[in-house]
Amino acid sequence: MRRMPFAGGLSALLFGLLCAPVISHGAAIKGKVIFAGPVPAQKKVDVTIDQYVCGTQKDAGDLLLSPQKELRNAVVWLENAPAGTVAPAESAKVEMDQNGCTFIPRVVIVPAGGTVDFLNSDRLLHNIHATPKLNASFNRTQPKSRTIPITFDKPEIVRINCDLHSWMAGWVVVAAHQYYAITGADGQFAFDNLPSGQYNLQVWHERLGTTRASVAITDQQAGRVTVEMKSP
Ligand SMILES: [Cu+2]
Questions:
Q1: Model-level pTM greater than 0.70?
Q2: Ligand 1 mean position, distance from CA 200 (Å)
């Protein structure tokens, strides 16, 4: 059999390039965070005030595991995000409600410079109180139905408390770029639209601390990674 002449091969290559769909990056990371080690007993908190809204007992909510020990509410981000990626300025509205004396959702991501609208759906008084290191502190009374917008300027993980209800905790993760994700109830997270390469992941969880992982991806195959976290 004759080899294809060089010129023919080149034009075939050019044809392929010209006809390729315009996709800037085709690689993806698909991952899962799981809890390693014996599962601790769920912490319950006795409620002593405002029981007419808050109930008499709350789950601590700081370690949410599926029966397969998949970890919810872990935050995963790329340490080496592709050059030039920035947090999208016109991102969707980020809200954190106080509902049933619980912050919902418990963990949100907002791009640096973005705003979180804090809500209160409960028929009682809450408050939002945070003392971050890099962002401005705030301590605001929050009556029912009042929306309090707070802007976060610097990448940081900020704990939100309600001083009236000691068990209430929420977290605002201020993102440096667009490659941040929160794990769902199945522990899963994903990033797509990435150039192929080697990526270093950082994983944070409010109770389990931080850990790292790395994964190599190509345009042909999504990088799969399972990250284990254990009690500190
Ligand atoms: Cu409260």
A1: yes
A2: 37
